[in-house]
Design brief:
single chain, alpha/beta, TIM Barrel, nine-stranded mixed sheet, six-stranded mixed sheet, 16 helices, 21 strands, binds zinc ion
């Protein structure tokens, strides 16, 4: 009893003390407010960075065009009109007047091998090239133990300046790699920039492939990874192998929703009508390449395939129309030719025109998609493909500040001009990692008011990179040109 009274007495004293403290705080705040000049009202939580006077395409389903975005730390704190967002400007806020330019969520490449299969370039050069094209996240679809070690070394040194989802291979052609991947947790995050995305299986070989598994063998491999909780990404090109993997996924899911797992079919080069419906029903994610099957590919497809099979090829439009979850990628550096740029990828998906001026045949034209669909495939839909749509992929308060500023609005300029659109600024987690017109956009704001000289975080590091002798090349090529001279192997060592 005595102890209880003691506690009650203590609680009462604390209560009185807290009232006293609150009273002092309130009084002093009132005093401070009374003496502040009326022209600069205080901001409770001023943002670190505000980008305003732009066309902000949020990629949200409704009311998706805004004017301004505010960022604090690594996250978005406001998206809205200039007036709404500039209300968060304080003395310490960096502001960027976008001058009507277009701001989008950073581009997400759902499938590529940029860092892993990079030729003679350094990883840093590849990353800088991707940033200059507006990519903020990459999924690397063949990260074996050596490549994972390389990525972790880069990350620990602070040189992995882009977000990477690593997919660990379970097989390649007839090789089987065992359960080494289970040393890592599904979705394991080493840092904000490096995460285990899932595992990768090759169900057939490039391109009109032979099947590499029997049904029972594939069922077993898929069930094992599924039960351990991994997302599975499966290389499938022909419709027979799509049957195999859909059977294996259905067998593993046992009626459970794929919403939890996001198992994916990579490439989906050939798909039949019945498979469109089955993919929609099972919720399997179609991961296709916006850069594949434009008119450069037409002759090869028409000579290698039977006429009735040509109609099954690269049905991007039909997949979207059928309501299949779809995500976009480039598979860079694989393609004819290899296409690295997000804007060039979008151009190819909406026109099916290659770079040789060949008119696309009707079976390609029928499968063109709309610009807004292509933009979604590389932003919010792509985020769904790694189960990260709640943290990135659209511009909304609380999501990661992964942003890209373009010189033009892809929704309003003629599609032929897409490859000429400049990527002016790429921001990852609130840090500017690429600035094209940095004199205008990153060093000085044209905003009126007290804040007229700004430096965006990250510019210092870019500047030092440019001036050191590490061989990192910062010159930015026009988006239409490929940054990398990558040879086009007929059957590359690692494909898909
Ligand atoms: Zn690939």
């Amino acid at each position: 009893m005595k102890d209880d009274e003691g506690i009650r007495g203590l609680t009462r004293r604390r209560w009185l003390l807290s009232i006293l403290v609150t009273a002092i705080v309130v009084l002093s705040l009132v005093t401070i407010f009374a003496f502040l000049p009326r022209t600069s009202p205080p901001v409770n939580n001023p943002a670190d960075l505000i980008l305003f006077n732009g066309t902000v395409l949020t990629m949200e389903p409704e009311d998706s065009e805004k004017e301004a975005v505010a960022v604090t730390g690594s996250h978005i704190v406001a998206v809205g009109t200039d007036a709404q967002v500039l209300a968060l400007r304080g003395d310490s806020t960096s502001t960027i007047d976008l001058g009507g330019r277009t701001l989008l969520p950073g581009f997400i490449d759902s499938h590529g091998h940029r860092i892993g299969d990079r030729d003679e370039l350094t990883s840093q050069a590849v990353i800088q090239g991707a940033l200059a094209e507006g990519w903020t996240s990459l999924s690397e679809l063949f990260v074996d133990q050596g490549r994972l070690d390389d990525l972790r070394t880069l990350d620990e040194a602070g040189d992995l300046r882009i977000r990477v989802n690593a997919y660990l291979p379970l097989s390649w052609q007839l090789e089987r790699f065992g359960t080494w991947y289970q040393a890592y947790e599904p979705g394991q995050e080493f840092s904000p920039n490096l995460r285990i995305g899932g595992v990768k299986i090759f169900v057939d070989s490039w391109l009109w492939g032979e099947l590499l598994f029997s049904q029972s063998e594939l069922n077993e491999l898929v069930a094992e990874a599924h039960e351990a909780g991994y997302q599975i990404a499966s290389h499938t090109t022909v419709d027979e192998s799509l049957d195999l993997i859909l059977n294996a996924y259905e067998n593993a899911l046992q009626g459970a929703s794929n919403e939890l797992y996001r198992h994916r079919a990579e490439h989906v080069v050939m798909v039949r009508d019945d498979q469109l419906e089955r993919m929609r029903e099972l919720g399997i994610v179609a991961s296709f390449q916006l850069t594949w099957f434009h008119s450069n590919w037409a002759e090869a497809v028409e000579t290698e395939l039977l006429t009735e099979d040509v109609g099954k090829v690269a049905r991007w439009h039909d997949l979207l129309e059928a309501g299949v979850h779809a995500i976009g990628g480039t598979d860079f550096p694989y393609g004819i030719p290899a296409t690295s740029s997000a804007l060039e990828a979008i151009h190819q998906a909406v026109t099916r025109m290659g770079d040789q001026g060949i008119p696309p045949p009707s079976w390609m034209l029928d499968q063109r998609i709309r610009v807004e669909q292509a933009l979604r495939l590389l932003t919010i839909d792509a985020a769904y493909g790694t189960a990260q749509e709640k943290v990135k992929g659209s511009l909304v308060e609380g999501k990661l500040a992964d942003l890209v500023v373009l010189s033009e609005n892809p929704l309003t300029i003629p599609v032929e001009q897409f490859p000429d659109i400049d990527v002016l600024l790429t921001v990852i987690g609130g840090t500017a990692e690429h600035c094209l017109e940095y004199i205008f956009l990153c060093e000085e704001s044209h905003a009126a008011g007290s804040v007229d000289k700004v430096t965006v975080k990250g510019m210092e590091s870019n500047a030092s990179l440019a001036s050191d002798s590490s061989g990192i090349e910062l010159t930015v090529l026009p988006a239409a040109e490929s940054r990398y001279a990558v040879p086009e192997p007929a059957r590359p060592a690692i494909m898909g």
